[in-house]
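Follow-up to my post from last week.
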Amino acid sequence: MPLVAVIPKPNAPVELREVPSPELEENSALFEVEFSEVCGTDVYLQQGRLEGVPYPLIPGHVSVGHLSKIRGRLFDVEGREFREGDRVTFLDVHRTCNACWYCLVAKASTRCPQRKVYGITYGLDDGLCGGWAEQIYLKPGTRIIRLDANAETFMVGGCALPTALHAVERGEIAIADTVLVLGSGPVGINAIILSLMRGALRVLCIGAPDQRLEVATQVGASAVFNFEEHDEGERLEWILDQTHGRGADVTIEATGAPDAVVQAMRFTRDAGRVVVVGQYTDHGPVSTDAAFNPHVDLNKKHLDVRGCWGSDFSHFYRGVQIVSHPVHSQLWTALKARLSRYTLAQASEALESVASGRVLKALIAPKFAT
Amino acid sequence: MPLVAVIPKPNAPVELREVPSPELEENSALFEVEFSEVCGTDVYLQQGRLEGVPYPLIPGHVSVGHLSKIRGRLFDVEGREFREGDRVTFLDVHRTCNACWYCLVAKASTRCPQRKVYGITYGLDDGLCGGWAEQIYLKPGTRIIRLDANAETFMVGGCALPTALHAVERGEIAIADTVLVLGSGPVGINAIILSLMRGALRVLCIGAPDQRLEVATQVGASAVFNFEEHDEGERLEWILDQTHGRGADVTIEATGAPDAVVQAMRFTRDAGRVVVVGQYTDHGPVSTDAAFNPHVDLNKKHLDVRGCWGSDFSHFYRGVQIVSHPVHSQLWTALKARLSRYTLAQASEALESVASGRVLKALIAPKFAT
Amino acid sequence: MPLVAVIPKPNAPVELREVPSPELEENSALFEVEFSEVCGTDVYLQQGRLEGVPYPLIPGHVSVGHLSKIRGRLFDVEGREFREGDRVTFLDVHRTCNACWYCLVAKASTRCPQRKVYGITYGLDDGLCGGWAEQIYLKPGTRIIRLDANAETFMVGGCALPTALHAVERGEIAIADTVLVLGSGPVGINAIILSLMRGALRVLCIGAPDQRLEVATQVGASAVFNFEEHDEGERLEWILDQTHGRGADVTIEATGAPDAVVQAMRFTRDAGRVVVVGQYTDHGPVSTDAAFNPHVDLNKKHLDVRGCWGSDFSHFYRGVQIVSHPVHSQLWTALKARLSRYTLAQASEALESVASGRVLKALIAPKFAT
Amino acid sequence: MPLVAVIPKPNAPVELREVPSPELEENSALFEVEFSEVCGTDVYLQQGRLEGVPYPLIPGHVSVGHLSKIRGRLFDVEGREFREGDRVTFLDVHRTCNACWYCLVAKASTRCPQRKVYGITYGLDDGLCGGWAEQIYLKPGTRIIRLDANAETFMVGGCALPTALHAVERGEIAIADTVLVLGSGPVGINAIILSLMRGALRVLCIGAPDQRLEVATQVGASAVFNFEEHDEGERLEWILDQTHGRGADVTIEATGAPDAVVQAMRFTRDAGRVVVVGQYTDHGPVSTDAAFNPHVDLNKKHLDVRGCWGSDFSHFYRGVQIVSHPVHSQLWTALKARLSRYTLAQASEALESVASGRVLKALIAPKFAT
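User reply:
Got it. Predicted complex:
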């Protein structure tokens, strides 16, 4: 019976369990986990900060491994059939229905009410549906991609890669624009890399702590600024100094702090674009101090502010193409040096490292010998 | 010497003065005013609520009249030369520079720092540059349009017409969408008309008082709701009832109340669009009660929120085309019945009527015999 | 056993047959046909001009009727369950896979290689899969919509309604634009109606014969021109006369004639848009006489030329909303007077009427007593 | 008196002349030429293949040099005043009017009928208005940009840089797309560089001769193909092999051959985009052999085909930013090695080198000692 790591309930420590291998449905597969990710969402899962989550559950939504057993037939989007032994990854979002108003009329599939997410909205009752495990059960309809990339290059992007890619897409960067990234966590760092790849001439980053800003610089940020050492006024002045007094053309907010959304508007030039991708968890309302003024901050600036929720298969697919490319994959090299690996038994430790910010990206490697 | 009405300084009553007729520069004209508008901005001008305004000034930014004297040659955008006697109107925005970064690189001319506005940012020192006057001096470079429409049909749209047209353009309504308009003042009413013309199947309106909601219904709103009689929760419920529980596809906020911007987000369906066009004056920050939560209200909803500032010649031109069309101009018929006309000597009275909301649209008719 | 009309092979007359009622799969239904459409595609089917069509087949892709039998559970996009007896229609396109590169990465589902179309790419071997029949078998996954509209109003739009709606969507008409529609068949007529609904101030139409141009005028075209009576030069002159010498802002080509694609470019103003929706069948290459010159006709004009293939559920859904609306449905009133109804036994006659152009829209009414 | 090179009339050899220095109008300048470009358009000018060109004329539209004399005041778009001695370049397009329907309503300023182009539509009668000269007269309203870049890096881009940048912008490349560039002349080579900078994962190039394809590879093309050695069928097969059988996501046609426009459609995947930027001169209609079939090549493919004419200040400005950037400018290093420099007296020789294709980019250096 495969070993899994489970969050039994909010605020309880991670536990190891054995779960019986499932009987495969037609057109499904068993996936042997090589690496699975530990991300900020997993920290929130452990803290019980996400609504509607079915505890106990096996965390781990982005994973890489190989198909050990296939029942029926499975194909990739190019129509190539999968074979047992293939090295693959899969889109954590499952069961986007393609039958509801959001899928079919609004064409906003990340808001489909039927969607399930491996490692987040599937619980232990659903079976082997999270990546902190020796095996994952890939249910029928799971979108699988063959992975030729180096496993660690792919995992260092992790779920932040499609998330940041979606945000960059929403930003509609014009060639030679100046982009400002707020936040230097995984989504922020990936947004820097992808903004540069997408035509930005310069990417500025405001984040913390200094070690992360150092990573931001390594992946290509033109200039970085530590928000813990400078108040909002100083940050604004810094941005204006870098942009002929105008502000950034595009700002990608990837912080998790509600007030940063208002600051993002202020740091952006008139008629620019702000993408809000840092508010995946409810951290409450914008503070009174932030003093969000729709006349000054939004209407008079003729600003576009764009929420960016989730990602779909296209973002995941494009992300895999990029990290599988011999040249472009090197953009993640600086990050790879920062990876920390943990066994299933060390999952609680991995969570703490991520929660504390000591580690930029942690992986669970279930077959890793301790 | 032409007679003009002047706001001498903030909070002072309007005064009548005589101003010498200007010596015309090359390629300029004198314009005899038939009607000039009294709008909410004029109320704010009188109350001293706009920054950087050069008192004393002659209000009146949208006007209709005829060219009584031309020096040099003047042409419309189609290349037809103007003649003395032509019935025309002109874009109140003047001197958009076509030489700055905003004009040439961002292509956001409504944010050009050089732009001047007749009746708002031109003061009495600049000469006959406002419409509450027997004559206006059309300086070189003023964008003039021949007007075949009925003068009152055009004026009942007034400055709200290009403003609402720009907002509707920013809303990117898809055919058969449900649009929600917040506010039932001139911009709101024009937004209802233009949303329907632009493909909305249904337009809902939340406003007040009942007389204005009656106008909203007359111009085509499918359903209206009085915000003075219903709290935010009831308004949300009303919207959801009308939209299969989803919210409006597109919301146009045209209220002037900061908190309405947050409500607009909540009243809009996931992955919809909110256009913020009601915050032309600084009414301070969003209130603590509004509790703007970027996770719930923006990011998770995958929402687009678009500030909409000013309008350019294209909006003015398209607006004139529409009200000049024999069929489409009838969309403003219900409004025409609500027009109130005032002489120059009655300008203070006109301002009070607009400020109190008793009158939907007031016109100054300088040649109107009392 | 339900009676059906069958095209046995290319160029053979339509035959009546009896086909056994299917055993229903889980989540499928039987649909009793009230009306099914006879459109230009059916003429081409009979003439053997479409590739890859599985003869014998039952034509009829857009139909209205009611659900006589449901096995399992069926829901609409709003999540409401269907009941036996419900009056419905359904999207003729079936089995768009949501699993291939075109569906998931390009998001161009009308180019999904897996899609099947009732009445066109389903053959008799697939069962009751065409509308010229007493019953249709709605296979699992068929997208069904409850229909509150008058059946004839809906059918007079027919398959041309979503096709034209898609084309109008692709045209990105700006409010107050002048649109030119080439062709006065069903797609052209629906494009006129929808262009007006979508913000065009004026719609011009070049078509033939005069009876159809009369319909164009009745549904709102500002001016019409008979291409049979005027050569290309005269047509161009006519367009320029109507548009200040510039050409149409948006042209929708809905003719079926290859050379019309080149003319559409010439009739459109510089930097305008051309939507090509009239080339659904292979009529061979553009003629030498047409003399398509990419410098003059395309590059120097800075033109956008947009092919428009098929339609997806969103177009069908929006079309149904429009014809179900008490006011907007009246836009099709002029067309309803032109409907011709035929029994199953008269199917060959119906085809001839459509092929000859004598009839604008023919319906098969299987339960119609002759 | 400054020395200039003049094309006296079509097909006549270039002559040297002396032209009196102009008396400067208010807010104008004299510009000392360091380098001016010899491009394909100059070849066509000499061959008399452009319409409406006022011979005799001084060719040379993109130039770099310094301001030797300023009368009045000149500012850049950031509002910084120019001083005599500043190293600058300027947009060759002049007098875009900002007053006509194309400028103000269509917002398509590259189709403004008033625009003049230094070195192309200004003739010798207009004064020192071309770059093959010791001095250029920068008339009032000329858009000047301070140039910090290496002069040769900037000139190796030349007029192809903003042209290709505009084309890439029109292509709306999605991140990780495969782009196909047809043509390996200056526009094609710049399109390769900019497509990569704008998010393409792979850029394919079909061109000739082999030396140019070698340059294409040096600047980053993933694969190249010689069209002189392979017929259309082989080219199509080559593209399909590289793209999972689908075709390129975006094709940029930059060839000058009419038939290439049709091939571009065929080489592009369904629902992709084709940008036509290679048809700046009239080379006649598409050939009968090309057999442009709107059903197969356009409508069924659901293709977007976009003409791309000229470039505006934004493209020029962004291009200057890119070549002034320490890292990005290196993308043009491979091209710099291919530059050939000529004196004014060698202008005919320079034209021949460009016409023959022996030289990729030739510069006139008027102060170059022979």
